[in-house]
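Q: Joint fold for the lines below.
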Amino acid sequence: AQSVTQLDSQVPVFEEAPVELRCNYSSSVSVYLFWYVQYPNQGLQLLLKYLSGSTLVKGINGFEAEFNKSQTSFHLRKPSVHISDTAEYFCAVSAGTALIFGKGTTLSVSS
Amino acid sequence: DTGVSQNPRHKITKRGQNVTFRCDPISEHNRLYWYRQTLGQGPEFLTYFQNEAQLEKSRLLSDRFSAERPKGSFSTLEIQRTEQGDSAMYLCASSLEDINTEAFFGQGTRLTVV
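A: Joint structure:
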């Protein structure tokens, strides 16, 4: 069965610092991986996804993620964060007809 | 198109009462999903429709829960005889094709059972 583990529940960073949000996955079949962001009082929004091809995936708002099959990881990165990036971030794996989400990582950006 | 719309946004109910939530997906999307999100957890899959057919249900969807999508448009999620453990955010999402295309989420309905 597919599952994802988000290794950090909270990540505090200062504005303009780089950030990495870690996600490991478990899957016995072909892997489709996603990162979603949830701003306060908003629905989830797709940041980026990996279906196949290049292992470095670029998404919206300057985020990118790298699919690493040997490490079974799909970590999300941004070289320089803004206050507006403060939100909950969810890693997810496709289970065929639905997405299986991790527990989320709260990114808090302060000045 | 205003995206996925969910109503009500908040619902407070007494234990034992029935509640119904509505989801209006993006109009051309034929797939619709319900998820439940509790504090400190990611969304958990409940059920999925392709057009009007309910094709998959999670074991989380007990017999007190029922979902419908008449005519393949909006969907309703009903919880009968609510329990305190049902308190959660109920999220609806829709997608044009399978889940590996982009799924668009609504803002959710927050249920509090007192």
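Q: Anything notable?
A: Chain B touches chain A at residues 3-4, 33, 40-45, 48, 55-56, 91, 93, 98-100, 102-108 (CB under 8 Å). Chain B has a mean pLDDT of 93.
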